[in-house]
Design a protein that fits this description.
By secondary structure, this protein is an alpha+beta fold. The protein is built from 15 helices and 7 strands. A 5-stranded antiparallel beta sheet has the order 1-2-3-5-4, with helices on both faces. A two-stranded antiparallel sheet has the order 6-7.
Length: 458
């Protein structure tokens, strides 16, 4: 016997419900369903309404029409009616039991099945129309934007960086390459200068892996985020794949002649981006302390938003450092507290450098902090150190910034404010939200948007 489809099953339940409610025997249901199928599948036209109806059979009268012909006959009719009413009441009671116990659950199950059958083709269709984000590589770099820090192959990075010929910067301990994916997303590939596993100690490996874990936790738009890493032995490779910021360091933009001048509003956006990011790092659990916060470790995006970078690992892997215990470096609470206070101090120095345009530690002159403390001790405002080329500055913003600088560079770390307090104070005067302080033209942002749209559609 052929299996009934979902539509016929639904009809069967409806007919069952109808029959139960009208006292109809369930034995009539197959006949009713067959009748429905015949009507649905028949090619015959409906009966004509012009066919005359058969004559009604005459019904003999048993009385005058006003009174019953016999009182005994009326009594019998009354008894039959009462008996019929009682029987119908029992039938309705039994019907309601069937309704609650069988019919309604079956009807609900069929409705859910029909809904699932309707939605599944729609879902498959939606997934099929939106393809995954393609990088042109093997797929590992694509996963970097989804899973955080996957391990990548050297061959992939070699192709992206044009056989490692596209060198952005070279330092004693590491080299920075620029890579470009087929989608146009730019990446920075940072590699250690160590070329042999014999020179890479257990201490070096622990530092490298610990830094990967630390950087993967930050995940802030004003930070140079880690996208992946590479570990291979032949040839020896230790690399990190990071976001790429094309506009150089903050130090270069403030002091190099071949860089464009940053106006007051642009500098305020940089200040707020730094404040939001450092506060985010300090409020992670456990907190993340930047090991060397200064203008040379702050990069600028294409639209001159601040992007904090941390390249300290490449120096740490060749230094003696602290001895590892159970695979982890020993970090005491006092050291973390001191690191947080040091970040606050360095942030004050960066603020001073941004508003003054002066080098913080010149070779043959007093340091910038020394000049600021001289102003404070001489009852002069730090505003006297303002960059003379600065125009369109706002006095109320400058005043708040000078107050924050003075609080940050206090000699006693215990008297320095927290980054939360600093950020709240700055935002009172500088009306730049976290969203406005983040890069608007970041290639990573567009890549993440593509990935998110694919994931949400799936």
């Amino acid at each position: 016997m052929p299996t009934m489809d979902a539509s016929n099953s639904f009809v069967l339940v409806v007919l069952t419900l109808h029959s139960v409610m009208n006292g109809c025997s369930s034995m009539d249901l197959p006949a009713q369903l067959s009748h429905r199928r015949l009507l649905k599948d028949s090619n015959l036209a409906a009966p004509s309404t012009n066919v005359p109806a058969s004559a009604a059979a005459p019904v003999p009268s048993t009385g005058s029409g006003s009174f019953p012909a016999s009182s005994s006959q009326g009594q019998n009719d009354t008894n039959e009616i009462a008996s019929s009413s009682s029987s119908k009441s029992d039938d309705v009671s039994r019907s309601m039991k069937w309704l609650y116990m069988i019919v309604l659950p079956a009807l609900g199950l069929l409705l859910l099945t029909g809904l699932a059958c309707f939605l599944l083709p729609c879902r498959k269709s939606a997934v099929a129309t939106i393809g995954p984000w393609k990088t042109g590589l093997s797929g590992q770099l694509q996963k970097a934007f989804l899973t955080g820090v996957p391990e990548l192959r050297r061959s992939e990075l070699e192709r992206a960086c044009e056989d490692f010929s596209n060198i952005v910067a070279s330092y004693p301990h590491y080299t920075v390459y620029k890579g470009t994916l087929s989608s146009g997303v730019e990446i920075a590939v940072v590699s250690t200068m160590i070329t042999s596993s014999k020179e890479w100690s257990e201490h070096s490996e622990i530092c490298f892996r610990k830094k990967i874990g630390t950087l993967s936790r930050i995940n802030h738009k004003n930070f140079i985020n880690l996208l992946g890493f590479c570990e291979e032995e032949e040839p020896f490779t230790r690399m990190m794949v990071l976001e790429y910021a094309p506009n150089g360091t903050l130090y270069e933009n403030l002091h190099a002649e071949d860089f464009e001048h940053i106006d007051w509003r642009g500098r305020m956006r940089i200040i707020m981006g730094l404040a939001y990011c450092i506060q985010h790092m300090h409020e992670l659990n456990p907190p993340v302390v930047h090991p060397d916060l200064q203008s040379s470790s702050i990069l600028l995006s294409e639209d001159n938003a601040a992007k904090i970078a941390d390249m300290s690992v490449w120096h740490d892997v060749i230094s003696e450092g602290q001895l590892p215990i159970n695979g982890d470096l020993v970090v005491h609470h006092e050291q973390v507290s001191a690191g947080l206070a040091r970040n606050v101090y360095n942030f004050g120095v960066v603020l001073l450098e941004i508003i003054s345009g002066k080098i913080p530690y010149p070779e043959h002159e007093r340091s910038l902090v020394s000049l600021a403390l001289g102003c404070i001790n001489g009852d002069r405002s730090i505003a006297s150190l303002i960059d003379p080329t600065m125009d369109s500055l706002k006095e109320d913003e400058l005043q708040i910034i000078c107050e924050v600088i003075q609080a940050c560079i206090q000699s006693d770390p215990r008297n320095r404010p927290s980054m939360r307090e600093i950020t709240a104070r700055l935002r009172e005067a500088i009306a730049i939200s976290p969203v406005a302080a983040t890069p608007r033209l970041s290639p990573l942002w567009w890549a993440e948007l593509e990935v998110l749209s694919t994931v949400e559609a799936g």
